[in-house]
């Protein structure tokens, strides 16, 4: 056993939290601010450009101290140390987990440095036009072909850093849906388009099928030799990429110790470099690196990802909240939630503990959300008056990027007003109309950041990465494998064979044979 493997429910802190929860669960905590003038001061962390206010939570000092005790009892410090020192903490895959090494500017591994240099030179040449396509024209469009971790992070960042973008058009082809691929290709000119095939394994069905489809499209106008000029790869599987026809000099290596959903900091981020330039990509890595240092060195009581993780455990395991929402008050962050969904749910959606035992407590939270203020006009009704308790992270920036100060003031006024309304509920306690009554007592974390910069985005994402790791340690699960995605992949292969051959004899399930038959009757 490399990581400590302690069932959290057997700790003293857990029992104490259970008893404490019973005292607290029915308490209407709205009054607490008027009774306790220093609450906000105590439940707040200020760090670099971040201001984190977690005072609007159903917690007291006792809650926090018990949660911190829980972190101690499950040996969180030891686990953090193991992760950063490169121990093989992904024990079921026998791998280290070192996405933090990709941004460790104090102690950079030579292979990381070499790849970063290669990414810089390559993206510079694409951006400044030194790199020419097969007919001598400069590149105007870059298409990232990849799925899951080979798609969500780069697309989220490319969108989030739109303000810092250059002239290149960046596209993402992820879904195997041929209509989606066709829609993307429609606007592209093969002479001026670069394709980056991103797949850690270079075996992912969707990515390989899409890469083949795109190459066929490319070869309608170009020659086989031109593939070398327009297709590059990012992968651990160098042979796989070479077999596809990509020359070794155009392969950007990844390391085995980088998990797919944590890989946007690696060569997987090549499309980000093309979109915003290597300097901005590096600034994002630096922001993440600073967050790593904070996570590694800060005492737990002032440690942003640790506190956010503990609060999440509090709601998940004691209040039995099934989900948590993330609402970013920035249109730029519209792809943050899908990104977090993979990071969090692929990591912590586990029901067997690190001892191989079936778990009898709740693990992975369901993450969902959108951007404010749009979400206010969509599902906030349920947050305010529904029967479910949904702790919510609010994220926003002090400064807008384009000015438009009046809009920004309105945007942020809504952010602050929503966290207040969720907490305080109906101001008029004598209200007679029950349909207009707001209970309040709904928890939120307010994450306020100076400005949406590459550096701050890097820190924000790194905090969420560390948060999910802390939760996984507490829940005694392996956060860094993803065996749960394998079964569907195997069955899909069998199903495809049945569709292609019309032989349904190996399809196990009658409902599925019915569906395939109906599908084939078209
Ligand atoms: O969906 C499972 C998964 O393995 C993810 O973890 C990963 O990000 C994605 O598939 C893509 O994998 P690859 O980069 O190897 O194509």
Task: Characterise the protein shown here.
Helices cover 45% and strands 11% of the residues. It has 522 residues and is of the alpha/beta class. The protein has three domains: 43-73 and 298-481, Glucose-6-phosphate isomerase like protein, domain 1 (Rossmann fold, 3-Layer(aba) Sandwich), CATH 3.40.50.10490; 99-282, Glucose-6-phosphate isomerase like protein, domain 1 (Rossmann fold); 484-520. The strands form two sheets. A six-stranded mixed beta sheet has the order 1-2-11-10-8-9, with helices on both faces. Strand 1 (44-47) and strand 2 form a beta hairpin. Helix 7 (152-160) runs parallel beside helix 12, helix 7 runs antiparallel to helix 15 and helix 14 (304-318) packs across helix 18. The model has no long low-confidence stretch (mean pLDDT 97). The structure holds 6-O-phosphono-beta-D-fructofuranose. 6-O-phosphono-beta-D-fructofuranose is lined by residues 147-150, 199-201, 204, 207, 260-261, 346, 482, 485.
List each distinct ligand once: 6-O-phosphono-beta-D-fructofuranose
How many separate structural domains? 3
Sheet with most strands: 6 strands, mixed
CATH class of the largest domain: Alpha Beta
| Second CATH tier, the architecture of the largest domain | 3-Layer(aba) Sandwich
Helix tally equals 20
CATH topology of the largest domain: Rossmann fold
Query: What is the straight-line distance between the termini?
Result: 54 Å
Helix- and strand-based class? alpha/beta
Radius of gyration: 25 Å
Number of strands: 11
Label the overall shape: globular
């Amino acid at each position: 056993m490399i990581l400590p493997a302690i069932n959290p429910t057997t700790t003293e802190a857990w029992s104490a939290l259970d008893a404490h929860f019973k005292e607290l669960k029915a308490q209407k905590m709205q009054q607490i601010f008027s009774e306790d003038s220093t609450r906000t001061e105590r439940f707040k962390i200020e760090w670099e450009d971040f201001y984190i206010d977690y005072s609007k939570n159903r917690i007291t000092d006792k809650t926090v101290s018990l949660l911190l005790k829980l972190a101690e009892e499950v040996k969180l410090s030891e686990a953090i140390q193991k992760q950063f020192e490169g121990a093989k903490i992904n024990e079921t895959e026998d791998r280290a987990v070192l996405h933090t090494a990709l941004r460790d500017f104090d102690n950079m591994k030579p292979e990381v440095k070499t790849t970063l240099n290669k990414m810089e030179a390559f993206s510079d040449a694409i951006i400044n036009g030194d790199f020419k396509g097969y007919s001598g024209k400069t590149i105007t469009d870059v298409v990232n072909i990849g799925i899951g971790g080979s798609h969500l992070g780069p697309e989220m960042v490319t969108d989030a850093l739109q303000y810092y973008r250059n002239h290149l058009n960046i596209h993402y082809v992820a879904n195997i849906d041929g209509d989606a691929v066709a829609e993307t290709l429609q606007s592209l000119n093969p002479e001026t388009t670069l394709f980056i095939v991103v797949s850690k394994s270079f075996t992912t069905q969707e990515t390989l099928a899409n890469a083949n489809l795109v190459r066929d499209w490319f070869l309608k106008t170009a020659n086989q030799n031109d593939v070398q000029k327009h297709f590059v790869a990012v992968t651990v599987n160098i042979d796989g990429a070479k077999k596809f026809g990509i020359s070794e000099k155009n392969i950007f290596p990844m390391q085995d110790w980088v998990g797919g959903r944590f890989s946007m900091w690696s060569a997987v981020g090549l499309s980000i470099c093309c979109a915003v330039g290597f300097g901005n990509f590096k600034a994002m890595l630096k922001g993440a690196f600073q967050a790593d240092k904070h996570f590694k060195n800060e005492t737990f009581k002032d440690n942003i990802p640790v506190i956010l993780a503990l609060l999440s455990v509090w709601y998940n395991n004691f209040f039995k909240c099934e989900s948590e929402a993330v609402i970013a008050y920035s249109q730029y962050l519209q792809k943050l939630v899908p990104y977090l969904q993979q990071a969090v749910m692929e990591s912590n959606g586990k029901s067997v503990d690190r001892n191989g035992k079936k778990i009898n407590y709740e693990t992975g939270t369901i993450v969902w959300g959108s951007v404010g203020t749009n979400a206010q006009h969509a599902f906030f009704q349920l947050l305010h008056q529904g029967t479910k308790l949904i702790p919510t992270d609010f994220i926003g920036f002090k400064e807008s990027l384009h000015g438009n100060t009046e809009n920004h003031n309105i945007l942020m006024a809504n952010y602050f007003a929503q966290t207040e309304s969720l907490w305080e509920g109906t101001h008029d306690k004598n209200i007679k109309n029950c349909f207009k009554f707001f209970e309040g007592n709904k928890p939120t974390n307010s994450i306020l950041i100076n400005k949406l910069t590459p550096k701050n985005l890097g820190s924000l994402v790194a905090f969420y990465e560390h948060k999910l790791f802390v939760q996984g340690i507490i829940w005694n699960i392996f956060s860094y494998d993803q065996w749960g995605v394998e079964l569907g992949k195997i069955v899909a292969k069998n199903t495809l064979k049945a569709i292609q051959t019309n032989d349904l004899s190996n399809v196990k399930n009658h409902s599925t044979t019915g569906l395939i038959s109906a599908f084939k009757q078209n």
